[in-house]
Amino acid sequence: MDFDYSTTKLIPQEFLAIVLAGFGNELVPLTGNYGDEPSPKALLPIANKPMLEYPLVWIEQSGIKNVLLVCPTPHRSALSNYIQSDSSSSFPSLRIDLQTYDETQDLNVGTCAILRHFAHKIQQDFVLLPCDFVPPSSFSLTQLLNKFRTETMYDGAIATACFYEGRKPEKGSHTDEWGLLPSPVPIVWDERSGTLLHIETPDDVDRNGEEIELRMSLLSRYPRARLSASLLDSHVYVCRRQVLDALQQKSRFDSIREEFIPWLCKPQYQRTKRQKYGHVLSPSANTINQSLALKHSTVHTAPVQQRSREESLPQSPPSDGQNEEQPRSLIPFLADDDEEESMLASLRVGLVVQRADGGYAARANNLHSYLELNRHFLSQTTYFLPTDQESRSLIDHKAQISSDSMIGHSTRVEERTTVKKSIIGQHCVIGKMARIVGCVVQDHCVIADGAKLDGCVLGKGTKVGAKAELSRCVTQCGYEVSAGETVKNEKLDVSDWTATPGSSEEDEEDEETSSEEESD
Amino acid sequence: MAPAATLDVQVQPSNGEPSRTLPKPQKEMTKAERRELQERQRAAKATKQAAVPNGVNGKTANNKKPTEVTQPSNVPAQRKERRASRAADTARPTPAPVNKPLQKVPLVAAADASVEKARGLRIFAHFGLPKPASIAKGEIHPTIVRLALQFSNFKITGANARCIATLTAFKTVIQDYSTPPHTTLSRHLMTHLSPQISHLVAARPMAITMGNAIRQLKLEISGSDIDLPEQDAKNALCSKIDHYIRDRIIMADQVIQETAGSKIKDGDVILTYARSSVVEKVLLDAHTEGRDFSVIIVDSRPMLEGKRLLSILSAAGIQCTYLLLPALGSVINEVSTVLVGAHSIHSNGSVFSRAGTALVAMMAKRHSVPVVVCCETYKFSEGVQLDSFTKNELAPIGDMFSSFPLTKPRDALTLQNRPNLEILNPLYDLTPPSCITAVVTEVGVIPPNSISSIPLALGRLL
Questions:
Q1: Which single residue of A322, A433, A511, B311 could bond A40 by disulfide (Cβ 3.0 to 4.6 Å)?
Q2: Chain B residues touching A149 at Cβ < 8 A
Q3: Is the pTM of the predicted complex or chain greater than 0.90?
Q4: Which segments show compositional bias classed as Acidic residues (chain A) (predicted)?
């Protein structure tokens, strides 16, 4: 008898995880081409592990088995190699379905279009994640899923989002040449019930840059709403399947984060939108729901039809917030089953806020946060000299490697080199007397003797000539810095450099990621 | 007077440890020396405990340890200790070795928290606190996972609601089920449902109503025709579930509405406790019939269900008074009838209901107010329940029910366990049959001592 057969076939999968891996516009030139090969943002290393690994491990820990990974067509082979390689042993039980869409670096396809395109593959409730979100260790996806599960059944909530408190950047670590730090978007939310009420979109800012306009129905329903401009969107959304149907109707939306989610927050308090989209977002026909049980539940008061004049009611539910989800009006409880079997869904969008003291979370979608994330992981571990003989022999005993650095496999470090607070990738060659402080050096780089690197991010296969000095630079993969050159605060692109690209002897790991909506 | 030497009993079974470090065997030592030995061993254990945070788990470790007594002089003291139970304080000063305990107090104080917490839960240690529902990967149907979350977060509460929710969820599970090869639906479906049921029970202990309904469902499944095609069999089961809900709960409620409603006359003052779905229906129905009565709602923390009932009844236009349980004595003289609901009723006539109902019933009885329990027959349990200690449930600590108004930040108001404070919220209590005047069921109005005749009245169908 085949025991496995029975359990897997009888239980439908509850969630599908969708991971969007884009080009990574903000991380140019790191995500620029490496010769002819693209350099996907999803495979950029954070603490010597590809960025994609963090959300995938997070997904696996929460028990979701199916993942749909969407990437641009040029990146397909690189990502597929990664998934099938040994490094994917950290998430063994995931079934990853890699799908591509046609996009080039110049012509952006919005994340909404991607989701519409793959809607036929999504049959159940789904979790939408970016490839660059690094979750805090104390916060598990299960918490977010549980909030969604509870609220969807109890209350008719349609989605749950996750916002986190960003860490304030240290003074002096911010370089304007690397690009401006994105400013957090103001949001309005209700803390007690964990509801996301309003997100200020760029369109709203264009329309009225000085004021935030809120509906009175929002405030009368949630009188204790809070406004915050210090929370960042993690782009992790747990949604019901019906949300996709609503997305199909709004064909002019391009970006999920900037346009669709703020729109999705509106039906919960705007009467016209609720009338228009309520039946799409929360279809009541042909579903077995718990409305009868909820009617009998002793802690639940049934939300009922809203009347046109809410103020004319003589009384209101207890105002201490116990019935927050309810509209103001109440009609007598109907014991008759035939009428109103379906509860009026609240169409809420839930919100989980991850505070800074709960752990460090960040999205590595711009250069500053990429560097910050690497630095954060450095502070978590201490450095030990590699145990295997071969790697050990490559590192000279006279090299000074501080304990808050990370050095990858098979990297050669010659004598009198100082490495402090840096991450060095695999198969690198670092010459004598080099000074590397606070850098992120990816795989296969060659740093010649006497080079000085300070706060740089070097792409794969970068060659730094002897006695060169680089300070707060970002180089594209395969870039060559000539000997003795001094560069400060610049993004070094291969196109700036007229010599022939010498990357052919390197391995084929270069990926190119071009602009992608969700990375900004 | 017990020799003050004996300190708390649970922590220190190491009296039994062999005296490998002692110069002479324990029986030959003087009492004072034995005390010293015990202190030392206690302090050693306390440092070990302080190093290992065990928290609430300490209760199972400590309470279940048999207190091995090797020193005969300590036996009577320990027995008295046990009777004194939770109130005991750990560091009772011992006369002889005064300086030693003083030195050990800082060591002991750290472990005190966990020890006291461990000792504090002794009274309800056998049913303890509900654990958060853990998800066994891949085996539990998503609907059951979500339902278990609703239970453990107290979103769906009440015997009727939980039973209906469970049965509705099972309908979904049955529809998604497909019989594996080489077996039949009537045999395999039950094994398929068993882990789902255990998952629900892990979220919150099973209600009697759920148990009765599941037993009936099992009977139906095992009796399903083997020749039916699978979809027909599943549809038949789902319709049987629907019939059960309709007949035993909804229709029964309607009959109870009429019966109990006829007992309400104009000008009556009805008192009810917390919120029962049946009583709510009775009151609303009587009001729509045109009776003129007023309602007194008695409520208590932590669940404060009465507030919801208050909002519903006053929205319907019934005149209501709301008060908390301690204020019951001031209004009981005005009450004409007490109407309460039940979680379950037992063969000896006792009613298992929300904690506080027994107080209301006793008070009413003392003031000669009739107590009417409205209860459907499917809540009947064959067993006999004599007290509410052997079988009860504790509500989780924390502000699950939004009991406090938002005038201050939530954290300041919520009660948490502290080193000297243990919070227990039993959810149910038992009303003895002597306090009950009548039980209104859909088969009639029954005096409490004839409750065991209900199965007979139903024709042996349970």
A1: A511
A2: 145-146, 149
A3: no
A4: 504-520
